Structure formats: structure tokens, C-alpha cells
Amino acid sequence: MPTINDNFLKLAAGYLFPEIERRVAEFTKGNPDAAAKIIKLGIGDVTEPLPEACVVAMHKAVDDQSKRESFHGYGPEQGYAWLREAIVEHDYLARGCDISADEVFISDGSKCDCANILDILGSDNIIAVTDPVYPVYVDTNVMAGNTGGADEVGDYGGLVYLPATVENNFTPELPASKVDVIYLGYPNNPAGSVATKETLKKWVDYAKEHGSLILFDAAYEAFVTEADIPRSIYEIQGAREVAIEFRSFSKNAGFTGTRCAFTVVPKGLTGRASDGSDVELHGLWQRRQSTKFNGVSYIIQRGAEAVYSESGRQQAAGLVSFYLENARIIREALERAGMTVFGGVNAPYVWIKTPAGQTSWQFFDTLLNDTHIVGTPGSGFGAAGEGYFRLSAFNSRENVQEAMQRIGAVLAV
Ligand SMILES: *Cc1c(COP(=O)(O)O)cnc(C)c1O
Question: Do both 151 and 275 map to the same domain?
């Protein structure tokens, strides 16, 4: 019998979304009439169809694959140059960021990239995460053996948790001691908060001073509506020397079921080998990807390229404003109901303070029982998320309006 990776057993604390499903199933069993009325504003998945420009480009790419002259077999592991060049032109050069096409690695998702990046890092790093946090950062470190076990609130030994609270505008303070790797995500999932230039500069300066690596998740950059909020960490001078950035087409162009993303690993960004020498992370990531990954489908990369065409950009912006309008409707309805809410301005998530005396899970049950709305308990994202609740703006306008009407009727004080 083979032995297993025991680190997986440390994850026993149970994953958030299965517990939500379990409670919803239990509720519908006891209330079969209410089952049809359930509106899910829980999981962060998009609902609207792909931009037309992407659909047209993918149809054409399917036709390319039908003829010998335009057929494509294995593509470059790093992604086609035409897609990497479009990314650099529109996402980086246009915003004054000094990033080149050979620093961009196309992949089938940022969830896997921010997990796989651990392949090229040592196992003795001190790792910091924000709290609340996107669970992938934590769980992948647990699986890799970078942590101890979980305590009663679900915090893992060995990780440095940086609380994001109302006092710090949901943008954590710098760690009190030196850390080697820091995961940051802005606009933030789950708290819907953003980092200003000053905040990000503080992190870049910290990373330079301590030789730390920032893993920056910018999956929601397209939702930034305020002009002075950075969309990329590379808008901060010096960030090339300290940061890897993860981006995805999932949320800006509805690619959650189509799958395309990219990671930027700047040349010159280094880590320390055990013999004391400095090694470029770019070369390691290239080696990792070309060994364990065979690239994203030609058809999908053509679809992603079309996100940067003139019509594609307009249509993707239309999708983003559709979800942001949902977020505004949610925010305003909750405020009218007397609740305290954060986020939802530069992000598709509204972060709610649970009403006095209710834990995150108690409020989950209240909302499910009284309004048949499913959200996500803040405590599922970390101990500092206790007393908060996330509602997602990814849904149809009709469902969002209906959900907010119910909240207005039932919860208003
Ligand atoms: C949705 C999301 C992503 C994107 O993941 P994909 O694998 O590209 O779909 C990345 N980070 C966060 C925090 C997300 O919420």
C-alpha cells in the first residue's frame, strides 16, 4: 500500500462550500416549498454569457483547427506570443508598467497558478496571509507541508495571519516581524476592499527591505472604478524586484467555465538557493510550466486575445459594469435595511457586518430561513471574518432585485 501525503489530513477542518451545501440541502428537505425560491449569492461564479467578440474568435479558431494550413498542435508552453503581446500592451504598457511579453505566462487559471507557484519556493519560508483570506493560498500551503495543524478557529500553525478589520479599512498592517512570502489580493475577495498606491508602496518597500516576495492576486482588477486605485502591483515603482502577479480572464470576461489566466514573473526577481546563491524565479517558473503543463488550448487563447480587441474591451467593460450595478443595488438595499456594509464599489463582493449578536453562521441561517438567500459566512475565510458575511454580485439582475426586495421586507429594522 502506498503512503499518502499526510499534510492533506491537516485540512480536516472542512471546506466552506460543502458545509454551505449541506445546510441548504437540510433546509430544502425541511421546507420543500421554499426550495424553488432559493437565490444563491454565495459562490463567486459569473452568470452572464461570454463577450460576443470572444465567441466569434473561438468559432473562427475552431475552423482553423479543421484545416491543415491553419491547424495548431501543441502551442508554446508559455502561451502564444500574440496573446502575451496583447496583454502587455493593454494591461501593462498602457498603465505605465514596465512588463515585457516574455515575462507573461498563459495558463488555464489563476487558482492553479497561485497554488503551483509553491513548486518553485522552498519549504522553510515564513508565509503571511491576510485574514480573511482566499482559502486557496492557505490550503495549498497546508498541502505542501508548509504549516502545522489547525487550531479551534481554523488557523494553521506556522502561518502569519494579518487581520483585515474595519479599523484598517480591510487592508492589513505590515507584519510585526520579517516574513519571506506575502499573499495579497486587491480588489479583495472576500472583503471587497482595495489598496491605494500608498498602501501598495508600503508593501513594496517592506518587501525590498526584508527580501520578501509578494504574490499579488489581481483577479478583480477590472472592477476598479476609482481612477487613483492601482490595478496592478507593477504600477508601484520597484515592484518588479519583489512581486509576482496573478491575473485571470474569469471575472473580467466571464471565463470561469472557459479557463484562461496568466501570471507575470519579472526577470531579475530572485530567490535564494540553499547554497546561498540568488536564482531567477522566471527561469524556475518557465521550467516548472514546461515540465508540468502543456499550454492552454489554441481556441481558448484566441478567445482571450479577443478580450483586447476594440469590441471585446467594450463588451468586457459592459459585463463588469453590469455586476457592479448589481453590487450597488445590494449595497444600497442593505443600507436601507439598517445594515453596515463594506466593499461593492471596486469589487463584485459586498462585505456585511452581521447584525448585533449574530455570528457569521447564525446570520447565514437567518438569511436562509427568513429570505431563502444563500450567502457566505465570513468566518469561512478566516478567524477575523467572524461577524461578517459576503454577498456576491454575480447573478442576474432579476435575482438580485428579488433578493433585495426580500431582505427589505424581512430584515428592515
Ligand atoms: C476567481 C478568483 C481567481 C480566478 O481563478 P481562476 O482559476 O482563474 O478562475 C483568482 N483569485 C481569486 C481571489 C478569485 O476569487
Answer: yes
Residues 108 and 191 in one domain: yes
DSSP category for residue 49 = P
The span from the CA of 347 to the CA of 320, in Å, is 9
Residue where a domain stops, chosen among 274, 309, 344: 309
> What Rg, from alpha-carbon coordinates, does the chain have?
22
Low-confidence ranges of the chain (pLDDT < 50): none
Residue partners of 99: CB distance under 8 A and separation at least 6: 88, 92, 93, 234, 240, 264, 266
CA 278 to centroid of ligand 1, rounded, Å:
30
Q: Name the residue with the closest Cα to ligand 1, atom 11.
A: 219
What residues does ligand 1 touch, defined as CB less than 6 Å away? 44, 109-111, 134, 185, 189, 217, 219, 248, 250-251, 256, 261
How does DSSP classify residue 245?
E
Give domain status of residue 97, yes or no: yes
Distance from C-alpha of 270 to C-alpha of 280, rounded to nearest angstrom = 4
CA 156 to chain centre: 21
**Of 280, 309, 338, which residue is a domain's last?**
309
H/E stretch holding 248: strand 243-248
Q: How many domains does the chain have?
A: 2
pLDDT of residue 16: 80
Taking every pair of C-alpha atoms in the chain, what is the biggest distance, in angstroms? 67
Residues 127 and 38 in one domain: no
Domain contains 217: yes
Query: In terms of residue numbers, what domain contains 18?
Result: 12-48+312-411
Is residue 1 domain-resident? no
340-346 contact pairs (CB < 8 A, 24+): 342/166, 342/170, 342/191, 342/192, 342/193, 343/170, 343/188, 343/191, 343/192, 343/193, 344/192, 344/393, 345/192, 345/225, 345/226, 346/187, 346/192, 346/194, 346/220, 346/223, 346/224, 346/225, 346/226, 346/229
Whether 229 and 334 share a structural domain: no
Please list the alpha-helical segments (H only) found in 88-181. Answer: 110-116, 135-143
Question: What spacing in Å lies between the alpha carbon of 219 and ligand 1's midpoint?
Answer: 6
